[in-house]
Design goal:
Blueprint (H helix, E strand, L loop, with lengths): L7 H15 L17 H20 L1 H26 L4 H22 L1 H9 L1 H41 L21 H32 L2 H9 L4 H43 L4 H11 L5 H18 L2 H31 L3 H15 L1 H20 L4 H7 L2
Amino acid sequence: MSSVAIPASLGTADQQAEQATSAVDASLVAVPDIRLPVDARGLALGILAALASVLALWWAQAFLVPLLLGIIISYTLNPLVAWLEHLKIPRVIGTLIVMTSVLGALALGTYSLRGQMQTMIEQLPEAATKVSGVFTRMQGSHGGNIQKMQTAAAAVEKATAQATGGSTTARQPATHVVVDQPPFRLGSLMWSNWMGALGAMGQAAMVVFLVFFLLIGGDTFKRKLVRLTGPSLSKRKITVNILDDINRSIQKYMLMLLTTNLLVALLSWAAFGWIGLDNPAAWAAVAGLLHIVPYLGPVVTAVATGIAAFLQFESLTVALLVAGASLAIATLVGTFVTTWMVGRIAHMNSAAVFISLLFWGWLWGVWGMLLSIPIIVIVKVVSQHVEQLHPMAELLGD
C-alpha cells in the first residue's frame, strides 16, 4: 500500500496564509466612541426646580420657621402628655399641665435671674463709655503710626521727584465730598424696635398655640398621613416606620440638646464664679441658651463675657482668661459630648451636617442654624425608607 507524501513547502505556505489572515493590523480597527447620554433638558429643569425650591423656602421663612419649631417642640413634649394619658388623665388636661409647667419653669428661671440681668443692663452705659475710651486710645496710637508712615512716604516721593527732575510741589489733598445724612430720629428707632418686638412676640404666641393643638391632636395627623399613602399595606407600613423613626430621632436630639446646654451652663457657672466674674449665674444662663446655636453662639458668649471681664477687672489677661474658658467649655462639650450623642442618635456624616448648617444658616440665619440638624435628620430618615432616595441616605450616613 503506497502513501502520498505532502510536500513540506505546501504545508508551510498554508500556515503562512492562515497566519496572515488572522493577523490584523490593530491600527485599522476602529473603536467606537462610547458616549453617555445626557438629558440636557431634564438637567436644566432639575436645576430650575432646585432654585425655585430655595427661593420658595426663603420667601416662606416667616411661616416655615414657627411651623418647624412647633412640630419639633410638640414631638419633644408628646411623651410627657402620653404618660399622663396613660395615667387616665384626659389628653386636653394633660396638655394643659405640660404646657403650663414648661412655660412656668421658663418664667421662674427668668424671674430668678432678673436681679443679675437688671444689673447687667444698668452697666451697659458705663461699659459703652469704657469700650469707647479703649477704642479711642487704640485709634490714637494707630493714628500716630499712620502719620509717621505718611510722612516717610512723602519724603520718599519728594526724593524720587528730585532724582527724576520732576516737580517737587506737594500734591493737594483730595477734596472730601460731604453727603447730607438724614437726621437721627429717636422716635423712628423706638418704633422699629417696638414693631420688631411685637413681631417676635406674635411668632412666639403662634408657636405656643401650634404646640398646644398638635399635642391635643395626638396621633391624628399620623393616622391621616398613613391613610393618604393608599390602600397598599407595604406603603402604609413604610409611612408608619418613617414617622416613628422621625419621632424617636427628634426626641433623642432634643434630649441631647437639653443635656449639653445644661452641662455648658453648669460648667460656665463654676468657671465664672471661680474667676470672680460678676453675675456668674446670669452669664452661665446666657452661655447655655446661646449654645443652642452651633458655632456662632459660643463665639458670641466668649466675646460678651470677655468684654464684661475687661470692664470689671480692667485687665486684658483676665478678659482673655474668661473668654478662653468660655470657648474651652463650649469646645469640650461640643467636641466630645455632642459629637458622641449625635453619632448615637442618627449616625450622621460630620461633613454633611456642617454643609447643612452652612446652607440653612445662609438661608434662614440663626433660625436656620438652629433647625439645620433636625431637618437633615428628617431627610436622612426618609431617605433610608424610600428606595429611590437610598443614595442620599448613603451620602448623609457616617
